């Protein structure tokens, strides 16, 4: 449990879930979601963790690849909708934080915003700008 909170945060529950999987030598399957409906379907299917994929958000929202075209605000808005649509006690969501959407201040803002939205975790890519879709090759860090 976190300091003074009667219920563990999504981040604390994610750490426990991953620790338990590691101890049991088990992989935790983590399907990708791109909106509230896909997250709800993942939850109903019984998964315990999902990943809000930046590629999936960009592809479904803009019909374009994950090439730095989705803004922090757009990504956060999708994440807020996802976390509001699910029971975060049943499904934990890790959000794609892209490159943090700028410098170190932006990275901090991204992490704090994602935590406030209800994400259990955030992934941050260490890439130079402009970023490239990790699937396309030629990524520079």
From TrEMBL:
CDD domains associated with the record: ICL_PEPM
Gene3D superfamilies recorded: Phosphoenolpyruvate-binding domains
Molecular function as annotated in GO: catalytic activity
Domain of life: Eukaryota
InterPro entries in the record: ICL/PEPM, Pyrv/PenolPyrv_kinase-like_dom, Pyrv_kinase-like_dom_sf
PANTHER family: PHOSPHOENOLPYRUVATE CARBOXYLASE, PHOSPHOENOLPYRUVATE CARBOXYLASE FAMILY PROTEIN
Name under which the protein is recorded: Carboxyvinyl-carboxyphosphonate phosphorylmutase
Organism: Emiliania huxleyi (Coccolithophore)
């Amino acid at each position: 449990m976190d300091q003074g909170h009667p219920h563990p945060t999504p981040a604390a529950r994610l750490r426990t879930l991953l620790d338990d999987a590691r101890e049991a030598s088990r992989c935790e399957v983590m399907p990708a979601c791109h909106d509230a409906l896909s997250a709800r379907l993942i939850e109903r299917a019984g998964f315990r963790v999902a990943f809000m994929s930046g590629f999936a958000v960009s592809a479904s929202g803009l019909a374009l690849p994950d090439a730095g075209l989705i803004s922090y605000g757009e990504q956060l808005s999708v994440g807020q909708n996802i976390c509001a649509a699910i029971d975060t006690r049943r499904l934990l969501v890790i959000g794609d934080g892209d490159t943090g959407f700028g410098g170190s201040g932006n990275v901090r803002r991204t992490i704090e915003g994602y935590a406030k939205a209800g994400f259990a975790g955030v992934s941050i890519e260490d890439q130079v700008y402009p970023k490239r879709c990790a699937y396309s090759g030629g990524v520079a860090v």
